[in-house]
Amino acid sequence: MADPIHHRVLILGSGPAGYTAAIYAARAALGPGLVQGMAPGGQLTITTDVENYPGFADVIQGPWLMEQMEVQARHVGTETYFDMIVECDFEARPMVCRGDSGQVYTADAVVISTGAEAKWLGLPSEERFRGFGVSACATCDGFFFRDREVLVVGGGNTAVEEALYLTNHASRVSVVHRRDALRAEKILQERLFRNEKIEMVWDTVLEEVLGGGEPAGVTGAKLRHVKTDAVTERAVDGVFIAIGHRPNTDIFRGLLEMDDEGYLVTRPDSTVTSLPGVFAAGDVKDKVFRQAVTAAGLGCMAALEAEKYLAAME
Fold first, then answer.
1. Is 3 annotated as catalytic?
2. What is the pLDDT of residues 33-66, one digit of tens each?
3. Of the candidates 39, 105, 196, 273, which lies 20 to 30 Å from 232 by C-alpha distance?
4. What is the DSSP letter of 283?
């Protein structure tokens, strides 16, 4: 087995939060290492057009943006590893993280930026049109559906918030829910029911996303009523799956404080977790905004706080 690899700062995850933390840590001469995880680049690698990341007048591609962040992180001195961490010991000094490859990484400070992933229905057609009319982020992609009809699947806060946001762009929003009542907070429900652009489709599930090949994309949705099994088709230009997100924190259970949904808990206005020297940045702790730019900001905060922590330890 290879000897352990040591870095003063070890970053777990390679989305906007991870790469930004790496850039700041490298510029602070902390010699960071970054373990990329199963999906290098995070959720942006499955996002096509990006129009809301500052600094680019023209539309850019999500995968390209993440490639540029990786190149920048390496350029300023970050060592990157194509590996996935499967076990951590944050009580040890230095802290120890073991990769799926068998490689052991040690560090004096750790930044967790393993992100979160949208929950999907698991339909083949959903996968086929992901990024071509099927999305899990209205804030990211709603702009592309100006004056078009869209469908939102879900019944919790996420679905209601996505539907309300989409009314800023779409001409019509249909909310499909498998029950006859929403789970969302009452105040959100009241706003939803008052909005004339929104139509509720109760006791119904999405059976299939309909559409053609590029550039046609999504053209409709096949819906099934759960009580009658009646199947209908509805013409829509986009489908938003809004059944929640799942933070990638399973390996940290029992090690760090989490909320009921598995998001890492940090101090207010900070990325400091429940253990000294361990920091959390990006969607792994942020279940409110979940944007690339806010993740990058949290990555910056984590690196700066790690630098202060290491200076105090010395």
1. no
2. 999 998 888 888 866 678 889 999 998 998 999 9
3. 196
4. G
137 among known catalytic residues: yes
Judge contact between 36 and 81, C-beta under 8 A.
yes
- Geometric angle at alpha carbon 6, from 42 and 295, rounded to 5°: 25
The catalytic position among 88, 97, 108, 140 is 140
Report the DSSP beta bridge partners of residue 105. Answer: 5, 97
128 vs 134: CA distance, rounded Å = 9
Q: Is 97 a catalytic residue?
A: no
Contacts of 263 by beta carbon, 8 Å cutoff, 6+ apart: 116, 247, 249, 284, 285, 286, 287
Give yes or no for a contact between 90 and 273, defined as CB atoms under 8 angstroms apart: no
* Entry field: residues in the chain: 314
Question: What six digits make up the tokens of 40?
Answer: 């290098």
- Return d(Cα 112, Cα 272) in angstroms, integer: 10
**Tokens representing 29?**
């001469």
Rounded to the nearest 5°, which phi and psi values hold at 31?
Answer: 55, 55
**Choosing from 137, 237, 283, 300, which is the catalytic residue?**
137
Q: Note the pTM of the prediction, 2 decimals.
A: 0.81
